[in-house]
Amino acid sequence: MKNSILAGVFGVFALSTQVSAEIKIAHIYGKTGPFEAYAKQSHDGLMLGLEYATGGTMEVLGQPIVVIEKDTQLKPENGRALLEEAYGDDEVDLAIGPVSSGVALAMLPVAEEYEKILIVEPAVADSITGSNWNRYVFRTSRNSSQDAVASAVALAGENVHIATLAQDYAFGRDGISAFREALANQGHSIVHEEFVPTDTADFTAAAERIFNAMKGLEGEKRLFILWAGSGNPWAKIKAMNPQRFGIEFAGVGNILAALKGFRDFKGMEGGTYYYYELPDNPVNDWLVETHFERFDGPPDFFTAGGMAAGIAAVEAIRKAGSTDSEDLIESMKGMEWQSPKGIMKFRAQDHQAMQSMYHFKLDVQDDVEWAVPTLVRELAIDELPVPVRNQ
């Protein structure tokens, strides 16, 4: 009799413990600083992704999801310390973030030390899932190679000459390295490369070196610019009239605020990660409709990425049946899930999310305040030979 009473009490305690338990996710990202706009989009998208994947309940495995926000202020040392705090003091089940590649690289060893999952979104440097990768790191955002391969497929052609300008840090260096490799695979090379500090405001010297390298060439000449944040090198170099040498601009996609500065660049082409009108699938339809309802405007570049990360986290936990790191790793390797971009898949070798990209061409429309990336064609996963860089 006594044993049965104890068993009943223990059963009630176990049930109450299960009901009150929480699945904790830390979102560690640069809420303040020059990438603040990227960060807000990423967080909005993450919360929408969790909502979509849970059917609005914000629960998985019968347990509520709690999101803890931490601001890195774009400082690598902060990112490392905040992730340690999240894993150690807050006892989160997994973490998502950050915005900056430099911050992400500082955070990777912490995931390995604590043996906890880190889903990287939206930082893009190749080295995150390359030379600095470890088995606890998964990335839903595209990497520099995916940007580069998509742009190379979009821009390369017979008698086309390409020069590059990028920021002198992990994002720019890795991106141009991948772009150079992608062009080489198509039998092309870069005519001239320029790397400048991230806070550069005067592009005169760099532009003159590019002009001198290209002005004597015959054929199509394109200046491919890889840039994040403020500065707008396109406008400043355009004011120097590169057209007198036959040089046209090329680049990757960007957020809507940045695209406002591209209305003078109608016809510019490149490869992009996302623009809300490009994908055609039910997840993106829901995202676009919901975002217009709640935020009075369309979802942006990093909103889609945040949503992809949120859906991936829920699907991984649901598939694993737990939040144990080893169970999650096994469930996530090779995992496919639906995102605003259609199907994504974590590549088993490096946990990089394979995904479609888009060849775009900028248009200008009277009723839209930014330059509109129109679809030339979707570049499917099997069309993008993205290198594995962690081996």
UniProtKB/TrEMBL annotation:
UniProt xrefs under Gene3D superfamilies: 3.40.50.2300
UniProt KW Transport keyword: yes
GO terms classed as biological process: amino acid transport
Record domain Leucine-binding protein: where: 22-363
Keyword Magnesium found: no
Origin superkingdom: Bacteria
Pfam families assigned: Peripla_BP_6
Keywords: Amino-acid transport, Signal, Transport
Family classification: Belongs to the leucine-binding protein family.
Name of the protein this chain belongs to: ABC transporter substrate-binding protein
Organism the protein comes from: Tritonibacter litoralis
